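TASK: fixed-backbone design
INPUT:
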């Protein structure tokens, strides 16, 4: 079969077939009387083998080795191709992400693009100082893409950098909330904790809604962060978790402060004081927990808290009685 016929039937151009010939990959078995290349069925089969291997991403040098080197096994070849392909996909994905993030900021000119790229590179730096500087610079004329900020906040372990990233997110408005909500559903506990901490520092109503939802999560750390933030925002749903925190001795001072912030109205103060007194009366509450509950009553105004403290001043636990008596003295002096 002449080269033109082979090209039409195989889909490989005559020019490429001549290139294969020059490289010694496929040498035509014979020549016609006029000197034209003639390919046998075996030659054509080899062409198809070459094209099959090229479709897997092999270079012509690798194709030659695969066809001619008996020690070059398919398993070795395929494993190497998988590794190369994964590396290429990772690189292309990283590039695509960077381009999307630049596009999201809608740069007005190349100078904006250069600044965004520099900030993104700093945000991914191994230096905590550079990452922190990038976060603090992200609210300037050319801000960092919100997606990049959220990703950085959810992966940052340095407390100073994490604080700067949360501050930057708080300046971004509600745009980041959907991404942070995804973080709350992460299988990684540390990511969930970072997500709720970031949401807690955002002052908008959308953040409050997410924090309310976080109160129902089975993740205890997330619930605690959400309760503390909601207490400051005046959301009474946080009261049960805050009282649990006082009992457990986990951020109990912050929890007591949040309960105090929630007790600004008489009705709220009465409910909180009643719940604290009820926990104090429960069987099985350890003495240290009872003392913390008594201390939590100190900043709860109103007669319900005062009555509970009066009862506690006669408690069998001497430390609880002394604490209640001391608090009552302070309340009387106000």
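OUTPUT:
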């Amino acid at each position: 079969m002449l080269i033109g016929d082979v090209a039409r039937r195989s889909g490989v151009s005559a020019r490429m077939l001549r290139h294969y010939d020059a490289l010694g990959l496929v040498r035509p078995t014979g020549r016609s009387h006029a000197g034209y290349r003639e390919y046998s069925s075996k030659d054509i089969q080899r062409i198809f083998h070459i094209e099959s291997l090229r479709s897997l991403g092999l270079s012509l040098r690798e194709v030659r080795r695969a066809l001619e080197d008996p020690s070059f096994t398919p398993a070795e070849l395929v494993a190497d191709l998988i590794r190369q392909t994964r590396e290429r996909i990772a690189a292309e994905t990283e590039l695509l992400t960077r381009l999307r993030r630049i596009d999201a900021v809608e740069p007005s000119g190349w100078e904006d693009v250069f600044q965004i790229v520099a900030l993104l590179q700093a945000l991914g730096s191994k230096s905590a100082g550079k990452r922190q500087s990038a976060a603090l610079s992200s609210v300037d004329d050319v801000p960092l893409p919100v997606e990049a900020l959220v990703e950085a906040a959810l992966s940052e372990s340095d407390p100073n950098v994490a604080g700067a990233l949360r501050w930057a997110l708080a300046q971004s408005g509600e745009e980041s909330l959907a991404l942070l909500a995804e973080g709350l559903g992460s299988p990684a506990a540390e990511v969930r904790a970072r997500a709720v901490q970031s949401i807690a520092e955002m002052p908008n109503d959308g953040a409050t809604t997410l924090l309310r939802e976080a109160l129902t999560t089975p993740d205890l750390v997330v619930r605690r962060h959400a309760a503390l933030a909601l207490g400051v925002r005046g959301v009474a749903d946080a009261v049960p978790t805050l009282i649990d925190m006082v009992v457990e001795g986990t951020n109990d001072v912050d929890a007591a402060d949040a309960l105090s912030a929630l007790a600004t109205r008489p009705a709220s103060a009465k409910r909180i004081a009643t719940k604290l007194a009820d926990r104090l009366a429960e069987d099985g509450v350890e003495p240290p927990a009872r003392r913390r509950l008594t201390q939590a009553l100190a900043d709860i105004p109103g007669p319900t808290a005062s009555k509970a403290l009066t009862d506690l001043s006669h408690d069998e636990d001497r430390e609880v009685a002394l604490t209640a008596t001391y608090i009552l003295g302070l309340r009387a002096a106000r």
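COMMENT: The longest helix spans residues 74-105.
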